[in-house]
């Protein structure tokens, strides 16, 4: 029985697209991540939430190989990223929290360039760039410089650039930032369709009603560890019939919003 459990556990781990064990990271002696355990499988849309400064971006950047110096184990597609070389990065898409687009390029140039970096042939990269820009309602602006784009338009270009090489694992930091309500609906549908086709989507956001609606699983990072992990319904069953915003306050043990707001107003009114 024991042997079977071990076997099943190791098979489960092999199937995981992403597997993190006892991840720790400190900056200047202060532990930001202090024993994070996490696994993700194909078809999951995981909302990664937590207070400001909890270490969400740090976790994502470690998985992308952008932050070194951690301890613990990070496996993507079954391989330890410390031993994996760079090939696995072709299977990853990433939308960073702060965009670093090459503003002097047009969207067509930027997307074709990004596609080529991921190994697409130039004509295939350009065809996909055009299709994605069409899909996002930006075909009219494809030959304009990205520097002239609005915030939401830039966000769409970033989303397009993270998807055009058809990655299996997609990391999104605040993916809906700056998008209007119609665009939010398109992206939500898109993420669901991608997940249904076997992709894994791992995103972090502070917009709780969006997280509540689009995540098949919610992982809450607090105090350097995973403080809650489950579907919204599971978290709700644990915490009472509450909104995700209220559960977030409860799970991070935060109840002082009124007092803090009052202190701020008092400080503003002081002569
Ligand atoms: N390069 C760095 N050097 C020093 N400290 C850092 C560095 N990067 C991040 N930190 C610190 O690590 C902590 C976690 O930062 P991180 O950006 O991962 O948080 P987050 O959960 O993504 O926050 P937010 O929700 O505000 O985006 C913060 O206290 C931050 O100041």
From TrEMBL:
<dbReference type="InterPro" id="IPR003593">
    <property type="entry name" value="AAA+_ATPase"/>
</dbReference>
<dbReference type="GO" id="GO:0005524">
    <property type="term" value="F:ATP binding"/>
</dbReference>
<dbReference type="InterPro" id="IPR017871">
    <property type="entry name" value="ABC_transporter-like_CS"/>
</dbReference>
<dbReference type="Pfam" id="PF00005">
    <property type="entry name" value="ABC_tran"/>
</dbReference>
<keyword id="KW-0067">ATP-binding</keyword>
<protein>
    <submittedName>
        <fullName>ABC transporter ATP-binding protein</fullName>
    </submittedName>
</protein>
<dbReference type="InterPro" id="IPR003439">
    <property type="entry name" value="ABC_transporter-like_ATP-bd"/>
</dbReference>
<feature type="domain" description="ABC transporter">
    <location>
        <begin position="18"/>
        <end position="248"/>
    </location>
</feature>
<dbReference type="InterPro" id="IPR027417">
    <property type="entry name" value="P-loop_NTPase"/>
</dbReference>
<keyword id="KW-0547">Nucleotide-binding</keyword>
